[in-house]
Task: inverse folding
DNA sequence: ACTCTCTATTTTGAATGCAAAAATGATCCA
DNA sequence: TGGATCATTTTTGCATTCAAAATAGAGAGT
């Protein structure tokens, strides 16, 4: 089995929330499940630790990284910065074809919004933002963005999507698309920052689904 | 020996240019030198591959990542974005003490500049930028910045530092410090972008020291 | 009954061993 | 002499094994 595959599969397990944040990662169990030995598993865990998804405790095993409110704030801040950068770069380089694709994703997303399909809406939302990042034509940026968004998604926060918020988000997305079509880098950068700031406010206000560690609470004296 | 230590030591070896970009990483040799077995070494290599410093070729070993001009451009773009973000955040959060430290680093750097000490000048330069990033108080940002700058430094480009360029860089640093003291986030962000753009132009114009792979050239048919 | 300590078990971290793939080079043929 | 093919050696990737550390548990002492 390829090393990369193991990393990918464990990453998925973590992103799916199958192992909740803070919970211990059962080495032996995962080995059996993936039908590999501990060597490649441990290699994968080290890589994921470098990515920030796993926390290694010397001689005490590895845990799914636990994200504090501060961590989430930090991640959103960086995400915001990366998207703003991507927006500026994308305006310089994006092709008409790529714009059309993003426009299509936007249209699909609006449709899902009208139908009230939250899951599909999120998917479309993600497609738009990833489209912009890809259009920046900078693989380094793409990689960092993927890493940061993965960690954010990991938190599996539940945003109470009020109609007002949906409407705001859709409006902002329209503005984003508009700026892209006008190739207005600075304008897009500002919109993206505002957009993400709104999203961050939602998230932090709601708090994110603090999935319990699958362990007994600490005995406090 | 701690796993982290191995990663750090190999990273240093790579950053020192001891293994030139594109060159094969001699597994056996490194094992002997670090007095470890292949297991922790390979773990470290996988981590460094995730960081982008090492390139893994299935069944063909690992090589020190080779950076193309495009890679360098991409890295500089992202570095620029991260610094701009850091500057904005730093203006909101930086303490007088931190400003004083950066001011001290700046003063020291100017002194080295006057003395023509390039090495120390670079060191001071780095201290200033790292100071700003740290002042942003965002560990996620700090981590990504460290990773990106490490890869850039890895390239060991040789910039022909003309007096004009030095003067420009020093002037820009003064402006940076000034904006920080005024807590002018937007202004600082712009200065940092311009500053890095200048630096990037130098680098790309000069080309970077394309250290030869320590291998015979490919036999071309 | 509670806690402390000492031992046994489990788990982690690293070394070694083994099979498969690639690189090397030696031989054979045109 | 040049090139191709096959055997040998080396290297890679993973499994297994082993020592050390941590955890859990039993027993003794207060």
Result:
């Amino acid at each position: 089995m390829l090393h990369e595959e193991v990393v990918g599969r464990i990453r998925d397990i973590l992103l799916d929330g199958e192992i909740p944040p803070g919970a211990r990662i059962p080495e032996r169990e995962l080995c059996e499940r993936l039908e590999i030995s501990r060597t490649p598993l441990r290699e994968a865990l080290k890589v994921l630790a470098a990515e920030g998804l796993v926390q290694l405790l010397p001689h005490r095993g590895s845990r799914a990284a636990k994200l504090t409110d501060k961590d989430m704030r930090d991640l959103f801040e960086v995400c915001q910065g990366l998207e703003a950068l991507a927006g500026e770069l994308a305006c310089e380089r994006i092709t008409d074809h790529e714009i059309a694709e993003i426009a299509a994703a936007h249209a699909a997303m609006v449709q899902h919004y009208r139908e009230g399909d939250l899951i599909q809406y999120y998917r479309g939302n993600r497609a738009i933002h990833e489209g912009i990042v890809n259009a920046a034509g900078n693989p380094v940026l793409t990689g960092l963005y993927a890493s940061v968004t993965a960690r954010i998604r990991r938190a599996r926060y539940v945003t109470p999507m009020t109609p007002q918020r949906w409407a705001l988000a859709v409006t902002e997305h329209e503005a984003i698309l508009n700026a892209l079509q006008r190739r207005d880098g600075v304008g897009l950068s500002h919109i993206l920052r505002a957009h993400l700031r709104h999203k961050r406010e939602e998230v932090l206000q709601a708090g994110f689904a603090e999935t319990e560690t699958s362990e007994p609470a600490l005995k406090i004296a």
Remarks:
- Chain B has two domains: 3-64, 69-206.
- Chain B touches chain A at residues 2-3, 39, 42-44, 46-47, 49-52, 56, 58, 71, 74-75, 77-78, 80-82, 84-85, 89, 138-141, 143-144, 148 (CB under 8 Å).
- The two ends of chain B are 47 Å apart (CA to CA).
